[in-house]
Amino acid sequence: MNIPRRSLLLATPLAAAPRAAWPQSLSAGAFTHGVASGDPLQNGVIIWTRFTGAEAAWEIAEDESFERVVQRGRAGASLSNDFCIKVDVRGLAPGRRYYYRFLGARGASPTGVTQTAPAGEVQSLRAALFSCANMPYGYFHAYAHAAARDDINIVLHAGDYIYETPRGRYPTEAEAVAGRAIEPIRETVTLNDYYQRYASYHTDAALLELRRTKPIAAVWDDHELVDNAWREGALHHNERYEGAYADRIAAAAKAYFDWMPIRAPGGLRIYRHIDWGNLARIILLDARQFGRDQQIDYRRAFAPRLAQGGADAVSAVASFRREVLDDPSRTMLGQAQEEWFNQTLAASKARGQRWQIIVQQVVMGAQAAPSDITRLLPAGVSSNTRRWFAAGEQASGLGLPWNLDAWDGYPAARERFLEACAHHRANALVLGGDSHNCWANNLERDGRRAAIEFSGGSVTSPGVERPLTNAAPGEREAALRGANPHLAWCDLTHRGYAALTFSHAGCETEWRAFSDVRSPRAGAAQTTRLQAAASNAAGPGAWQTL
Ligand SMILES: [Fe+2]
After folding, report:
1. Which long-range contacts (CB under 8 A, 24 or more apart) does 204-207 make?
2. In 203-244, at which residue ranges do the beta strands (DSSP E only) sit?
3. For residues 432 and 285, what is the distance between their CA atoms, to the nearest angstrom?
4. What is the number of other CB atoms lying within 10 angstroms of the CB of residue 13?
5. Which of 99, 500, 501, 529 to pair with 54, CA 20 to 30 A apart?
6. C-alpha 222 to ligand 1 mean position (Å)
7. Residue 511 and residue 497: Cα distance in Å, rounded?
8. Distance 410 CA to ligand 1 centre (A)
9. Distance of CA 299 from the midpoint of ligand 1 (Å)
């Protein structure tokens, strides 16, 4: 039975009816969570939908009215993929815009817009960078703002696309924004839990619109899996109550790959790359789970050394550094991924690509706490919070890093990463998330710049600034810059996203900030601009604020 023409017109009143007869016997079902696309190639792109029937048809066209359909086909949906349909469409032309949709017996899905990666000489690339979208913490104004723009080629998501935490923990019930509740109520542990959490996040109109209008390339951080994950465990995974860690990671990864419109390189691997003609190679890494060694805990690894009789702080620090922190065997990426990264940089340079854009999870630049940061805490702050900031001051006073879950906790691995960038004379920009604040770092090795970094800016999750309320505007930022000379600029106040424009001459970063994500009204976005020059011979120039 052909789909009645009338129902198609009813479902998509603005679109012309397709010219070709539709395949027979399409299932009745609903398109429950919009459409999405991602991981563009020069000749293809992944398209995605969720359909509650057995089989849907799809088509991709050069025009919005689907008069020039270039590919079409059918795809099955099933409970085993949570009814998510992913199609790897090939046979497309490089560097052009396409429109796509899915069809069931009851009509069409919304029409999605995507684009393929360009080939050959390419003059510009504009990417939007997001991380850390915690739904009950507020509205996704950053997603809505980017979705409404017509000048973004690709969305890069550095992770914390969802949060696995139970309702009422992060945020607490008192902090949670009304009307932004998540399902399930409990922490996500099983495959079904993760599926429910994705379905819950994808009720957000801004997120659906971003997915509908731009191709996405994403990597997970810890909260798509479990808080502070590493290769064989996580701070917040308890095997006694939550089962085997490997089972949980497998469930979280399956839900992620089912719901995200991205390529799955196989198993738990997410590292991969996307080429943008001769202008850039976007290298997506897993600095979270795939190969990462366990995070160091000062309480276990360092405090006992300090407490040892006869050892003063200086010698305790020296032995901790030598034996633990600087241990050259400590890895962030794992050996296989490090080798792949080296080969991928070399191949990009061999292709003559101007930029190597590295999307990964956590802050790479060293971060020392300002020596007097506790003065920015108000009198009534909890003793736990005061202790946490005081510990940061103490660590920094001893020349030790503040956040051991970031690259700061893996200095030998960071050194190898920057050495690879320097060795290949990569023009490398490192992008990340995780911290919920926004950092523009000049990354140096042996006193020479090896790469630059633009990290973070959360969509909603609160940053380190939250308790630091005893500060005049700009005071937190000035304190952090004072303690970290390689930090060119930071924002410890706003939520938002970055639009990064790459050319052969340089990169201009436009940080779009929203002062209130608790209000459903976004207000005007404040914009900060930074730029850095490109160089194939010596790596990128330092960040300059404009
Ligand atoms: Fe986060």
Report:
1. 204/135, 204/140, 204/143, 205/144, 206/139, 206/140, 206/141, 206/143, 206/144, 206/147, 207/133, 207/140, 207/143
2. 215-218, 229-230, 233-234
3. 10
4. 7
5. 99
6. 8
7. 6
8. 19
9. 23
Using DSSP's 3-state secondary structure scheme, residue 215 falls into strand
Position of tokens 């993760």? 194
Cα of 494 vs centre of ligand 1, distance in Å, is 14
Report the pLDDT value the prediction gives residue 89, as an integer from 0 to 100.
Answer: 98
Q: How many A from CA of 68 to the centre of ligand 1?
A: 42
**pLDDT of 7:** 34
* Helix and strand element counts for the chain (H, E): 13, 24
Tally the C-alpha atoms within 13 A of residue 335's C-alpha that lie toward its C-beta: 2
Structure tokens at 133: 């979208």
DSSP annotation string for 482-536: HH-TTEEEEESS-EEEEEEEE-SSEEEEEEEEES-SSSS---PPEEEEEEEE--T
Q: Is 459 in contact with 143 (CB distance < 8 Å)?
A: yes
Residue 202, CA distances (Å) to 68, 161, 296, 371, 544 in order: 30, 11, 35, 42, 37
Tokens at 161, concatenated = 């696309």
Distance 71 CA to ligand 1 centre (A): 38
Tell me what pLDDT residue 92 has: 98
**If you measure from the C-alpha of residue 160 to the centroid of ligand 1, how many angstroms do you get, rounded to a whole number?**
5
| 342 touches 349 (CB < 8 A) | no
b/e map of 152-162 (b: 16 or more CB within 10 Å)?
bbbbbbbbbbb
Whole-number Å distance between alpha carbons of 229 and 379:
34
Helix ranges restricted to H, 140-190: 141-147
| Residue appearing with tokens 């300002």 | 370
Report yes or no: 450 and 421 within 8 Å, Cβ to Cβ: yes
Structure tokens that stand for 433 in this block: 């998330």
Q: What is the mean pLDDT of each run of 10 residues along the chain (546 residues)?
A: 35 42 74 98 98 96 97 96 98 98 95 98 98 98 98 98 98 96 98 98 98 98 97 95 97 98 96 98 98 93 73 83 95 98 98 98 96 94 92 90 96 98 97 97 93 95 93 94 97 96 98 95 94 91 96
Backbone angles phi and psi of 253, in degrees to 5: -70, -40
Dig out the tokens for 334 from the structure: 């794992």
The answer to whether 112 and 37 have CB atoms below 8 angstroms apart is yes
CA gap 273, 262 in Å, rounded: 11
